[in-house]
Structure formats: C-alpha cells, structure tokens
Amino acid sequence: MNIFRFAGDMTHLCSIIVLLLKIQATKSCAGLSLRTQELYAIVFVSRYLDLFFTFISMYNVIMKLIFISSSFCIIWYMRCHRIVAQTYDREQDTFRVAFLVVPCFMLSLMINHEFSFTEVLWTFSIYLEAVAILPQLVLLQRTFNIDTLTSNYIFLLGAYRALYMLNWIYRYFTERDYSQWIVWTSGTLQTATYCDFFYYYILSWRKNERLSLPS
Amino acid sequence: GPAASSHDEL
Questions:
Q1: pLDDT tens readout for residues A53-79
Q2: Residue A135 within any structural domain of the chain
Q3: Closest-CA distance of chain B to residue A194, Å
Q4: How large is the ipTM?
C-alpha cells in the first residue's frame, strides 16, 4: 500500500467522521441529502459484500466495517434521531434515486470484469459511487444551505478523490499488470461530478456570506 | 487479469 492510497483512505474516513461529529454536535442535518447518504450506504454494502468471500488484509476488513457502520449511523441520525431528523429538508430532497440505481445496475450487468454475483455488485458500487453525490448537488442548488456541510467535510471528500487518483497513477508506474479501466473511468467521472458539487458549494458559501454581512 | 479479481482498494 502506497502513501497516496493510505492518505486517501484516511481522508475519506475523516470526511465521514467529521460529518457524523458535526451532526452530533449541532443536532442538525440541515442541508444534507439523505438520499446521497443512502446511496453511499448502498455503495459500501454492495462493494464490501466480499468481506464474506475474500480476505485481503486486517486493515481492509476493519476499514470496510467502519465505512459500512458509519454510513448507517449517519442515516440513523437523519431518519430516527428525535431532534436531528426534524432538521432534515424532506420536501427539498426529492431526487429520484432509481434514476441512478437502475442505470448503474444495468451498466454493471453489461460492462464488468467477470459476470459473477460479487463482481457485478462490486462493479455496480463503483458506478454508483461516481454519481452518488448528485442528490446532494441538487439539494444544494435548491436551498443554498451549507449548514451541516462544513468546509472540512467538502475539503476532505475532495482530498480523498485527488489522493486516490494519485494512487492509481503511482500504482500504474510501479506495479506490473496493474490496470483497472472500470475504476479509472468511473473514478474520473466521480471526480468531475464532485468538482461540479464543489463549484456550487463555493457559490452557496459566498451567497450565505453576503446574506450574513452586517448592513 | 489479476487486478480485476482482487479488489484490494476500498
């Protein structure tokens, strides 16, 4: 494991933990898309089903379990927590996730490395992760609300994307037979959708800044 | 290929 990969995993983990702590501290999930968080949970569950079939390392097992449980923890807060659930923008967060889930699943049936149960689910999770931020992007475009989406979370999520791309480049040049077109293509698309999200986040941030200026 | 079947990244 190279330093880019490890740093990428850590920033990804930190982004989720930061979000969770922020929800806990402020007792609010305003501005956060439950649909995006649920898509991430689907991504983690379908990708990490291989926990039952293949063992790679103790590091991988622990990280996978943390990713799955923390994503469900965020969903629990948004859906079930007495106070936090009341701050959820239910009426605004209406993106039809089926429009993402179904095409991604179809695509994973057609384009994969191997037509098997775990392999198709793994491929599905890669495709879905690339577009999972879209409901969040739409919610942000509608509300300009950046309450719970702190700049820390946004920064860490972006750093995770950048570091993983560096990791692929590093592995491509240092390992024999390392090439994974599915991951690279969807990873690049994912980074592009993230950049779009980032752009709107900055826009909303500046708009909020203007609103809160003393007159 | 070997990279396809062993998904060692998270």
A1: 889 999 999 999 999 999 999 999 999
A2: yes
A3: 18
A4: 0.83
- Contact present, A33 and A95 (Cβ < 8 Å): yes
Q: How far is CA A68 from the centre of its chain?
A: 12
Q: Check if the beta carbon of residue A199 is closer than 8 Å to that of residue A169.
A: no
- Domain containing A147 equals 3-207
3-class SS shares of chain B: helix, strand, coil, % to 5: 40, 0, 60
User: Residue A153: which of A37, A1, A4 has the closest Cα?
Assistant: A37
Is B10–A63 a contact, with Cβ atoms under 8 angstroms apart?
yes
Domain count, chain A: 1
Q: Which residues of B touch A177 (CB under 8 A)?
A: 1-3
Task: Identify which of A153, A155, A135 has the alpha carbon closest to the alpha carbon of residue A143.
Answer: A135
In contact, A34 and A88? CB cutoff 8 Å: yes
